[in-house]
Amino acid sequence: MEKYKQVSLEIKKLLVVWDENVECPSPDEFLLDVTEFLKKKGLEHDMGKIYVGDKIRKAITENLKLTGSCGVACNRLLAKVCADLTSQMHRLT
Fold first, then answer.
1. Which CATH superfamily is domain 2-92 in?
2. For every one of its 93 residues, what pLDDT tens digit does the chain have, with 9 covering 90 and above?
């Protein structure tokens, strides 16, 4: 369990790039509001949102050698559904 908590903290440190107020309701779930990041970078369009979601997943994979799913949506519930869908899609490929 200690290793699990440590990895969770490392992931959270990576995620503050996109949202300094990242929330962690459980050790393996992180909630970010990337709205301001998207605005600052001019990525408010759909492809920008996809790009940011992909960058988040790649940062975790490259830095920690872990896989994860990421959902970007207008609210947390939809984002969670999107994350679940991307997770299922990656299992199929």
1. Reverse transcriptase/Diguanylate cyclase domain (3.30.70.270)
2. 888 889 999 999 999 999 999 998 888 899 999 999 999 999 999 999 989 999 999 999 999 999 888 888 888 888 888 888 877 766 665
Residue from 57, 80, 79, 77 nearest 11 by CA? 57
Could you tell me which residues come within 8 angstroms of residue 46 by beta carbon, excluding any fewer than 6 positions away? none
- Return the active site residues: 29
**Contact (Cβ atoms closer than 8 angstroms) between residue 32 and residue 19:** yes
Where in the chain are the domains? 2-92
